[in-house]
Every structure is written in C-alpha cells, then in structure tokens.
Amino acid sequence: MAPEEQRRKSQQAKETPVSDTPGLSPLEKASSSLADVLAQAERAYAAHLEAQKEVMRAYKENERQLDEMLKRAEEKANFDYEMALEEARKALQAAEADCEAAYEKAKEMAKQTYDAQLREAIRMRSEAIERAKSEHGKTMEQAWLIFAKATGQRVEG
Questions:
Q1: Where in the chain are the domains?
Q2: How far is it, in rounded angstroms, from Cα 6 to Cα 14?
Q3: Could you tell me the pTM of the whole model?
Q4: CA atoms of 39 and 52, how far apart (whole Å)
C-alpha cells in the first residue's frame, strides 16, 4: 500500500469520534470528546508539519531550478562573451592586416614619388649645369674676343 493511502486510512480510523459510541457515561463521553479534540488537534498539527515539509521541499526545488537557470545563463553569457571576444580579435587582426597593407602601399608610392622627383631633380641639375657651362663658354669666348680687340692680340680658342 502506498504511504499516502496508509495515511488516509489511519486518519479515517482516528476521525471516528469515541463520543458517538453508545453505552458510555456522560463523564466518559466528555473525556472521550476531549480525547477526540486532542486527536484532531494532533492530526491537524501533523498535517501542518507535513504541509510545512512539502512547502520546504517546493522551495528547495524552486531554489534548485533557479540555481540551474542562473548556471545556464552564466554559461550562455560566458559563451557569448567568448564569441564576441573572438570576433573582436579577428576584426583587430583584419584591421591590422589592412593597415599593414595600406602602409606598405603608401611606402611604395612614397618611394616611387621620391624616385621620380630624384630623377627630375637630377635632370634639372644636369640641364642647369649644361646651360651654365654653355653660358660660361659663350661668356669666356666673348670676354677673350673683347680682350683681343682691346689689346690687338690674337686669341686662340
């Protein structure tokens, strides 16, 4: 027999009042009435204690479920955090790679610009030196011609 069924049968047997039994004197009926009230009070107290235990079990089960929910929420938050951290790490690596590529491209462009400007500067310098030499030669020739005219000497050039 199940414990719940045994408890029910026991209560039914205890609930039959002794005062309803025929052939008892008024004193016996009064004392048995008190016994009945005491028995009912004991049963009520036992039921109260059992209800308290049941409430305590329900609270403990609720607490266990809440703890489990908290644990799952923490695990999910930790997982989401790890995923976000990994995505941020990947984004940082991609940004660093992009920056490195942009830096290398800018460096190459700067070198090309430098080389082009250097070639242009060398060309301009060479042209300026050639012009200066040409002007120098022309000026020297004119100066010797003037000198020769002025002195009457013949200048070989």
A1: 33-131
A2: 12
A3: 0.46
A4: 20
Q: What is d(CA 108, CA 101) in angstroms, rounded to the nearest whole number?
A: 11
Best CA proximity match to 125, nearest among 115, 133, 113, 136: 133
Give CA–CA dist 44/83, Å, rounded: 57
| Distances from the Cα of 116 to the Cα of 77, 104, 112, angstroms | 57, 18, 6
Phi-psi region of 25 (alpha: psi -120 to 50; beta: other; left: phi over 0): beta
Residue 22 sits at φ, ψ, to 5 deg, of: -70, 150
CB atoms within 10 A of CB 29: 16
Residue type, 9: K
The structure tokens listed for 125 are 């310098």
pLDDT tens across 78-93, in order?
999 999 999 999 999 9
Give the separation between CA 68 and CA 55, rounded to whole angstroms: 20
